[in-house]
Amino acid sequence: MSSVPDDPGGFEGFYEARRVWLLRILQPIVGDEAEDVAQDAMLELFRHWDHISRYEAPAAWLRRIGIRAAVRRRTRDIDRPRLERCHALLEARPVVEDPTASFVTSVLAELPEADREALVLHHLADRPLDEVADRLGSSEAATRVRLLRARRRANEKLIGLHGTWIMDQTWQRTALAQELREHGFSSAVEPVLDNLDECGPIRSHLRLQDGRFLLTNRESVHLDHGTYIFDGRRLTLHSDGFPGGVTHALTTDGDELVLRQVDNRNPSIHGAPDAAFQFALLGSSTLRWQPTRSRPLRTA
After folding, report:
1. Which among 208, 278, 289 is positioned nearest to 255, based on CA atoms?
2. 56: which residues sit within 8 A by CB, 6+ positions away?
3. Per the count of CB atoms within 10 A, which of 32, 45, 84, 87 is most buried?
4. Are 92 and 105 in contact (CB under 8 A)?
5. Which residues neighbour 286 within 8 Å (Cβ) at sequence distance 6 or greater?
């Protein structure tokens, strides 16, 4: 995943370059408290700036102390014995100065405690499913489902998908029509625009959370919802109650996300191929990640 380069312009430049990046990391862990935790981490960095600024990667130090503070805040009231068992397994593994390993460890720290313990026991400690289920006090079937969901959560955090992505461009009717024509959807212009006309200017918000997606226009108008699967560099959206699915090639660059349709098996709607609607709502502009208040993903 691409990251924001460290700003060489002193602490103030570094702060401006890294503030949103740090919020993006901390928000899945502590939700609405991410701003407070980020400020505390930045204050700690400021106190040691003369020393830390000479590190090869000051941002890695900031991420580490930020995640530690967030995890401490999140886990104050959880079951301590389970936490200690999980930490003991992590700490027992050989310490390797590897940025990738460090990042994976930070992703594990962001997961709910039971999910983290299941992944560590099964995939890092190589414990069999029945033993993991016994440790968690659940059935093998329930543990298998937990592992599947935990892998999906870890996957979306590893690539940085978790959160809300907002279209950079706000489309008025005339401009969106031109975009559709330029990208091979000339015959679909009228049905697409007529169907979207009641929504007003188009600026899509795509929220991705724990394997589910919610698509709205300017946060207020519901457009679609369902489940998603991320596999490699492709994002597949499956609308609830709607057959088929649409797959996008995915490119991230820091806080930017670009989606390009590579397969659309959804049926035509309102007299136009679904690919034209997908392009209008998700493929016609870069999407930019934005911090949002932590709340359950609701589709009703």
Report:
1. 289
2. none
3. 45
4. no
5. 167, 168, 169, 256, 257, 258
User: Would the pLDDT of 269 be above 80?
Assistant: yes
Please give the Cα distance from 119 to 147 (Å, whole number): 6
Closest CA to 23 of 117, 180, 164: 164
Domain ranges of the chain: 10-159, 163-290
Q: Which residues lie closer than 8 Å to 109 by C-beta, 6 or more apart?
A: 29, 67, 68, 71, 116
Under the banding of pLDDT at 50, 70 and 90, the label for residue 158 is low
Q: Is the pTM of this model over 0.70?
A: no
Tell me the mean pLDDT in the region 205-222.
Answer: 89
The two tokens of residue 163 are 């959160």
Mean pLDDT of the chain: 80
Segment (H or E) for 28:
helix 10-30
- Environment class of residue 110 by beta-carbon count within 10 Å: exposed (0-12), middle (13-18) or buried (19+)? buried
- Which residues, listed in sequence order, are joined to residue 260 by a DSSP beta bridge? 249
Within 123-279, where are the H helices?
A: 129-136, 140-159, 173-182, 189-196, 274-278
Task: Please give the pLDDT value at position 206.
Answer: 95
Distance between CA atoms of 32 and 62, rounded to whole angstroms? 19
Binned at pLDDT 50, 70 and 90, residue 217 comes out as very high
Three-class SS state of 259: strand
State yes or no: pLDDT of 159 exceeds 60. Answer: no
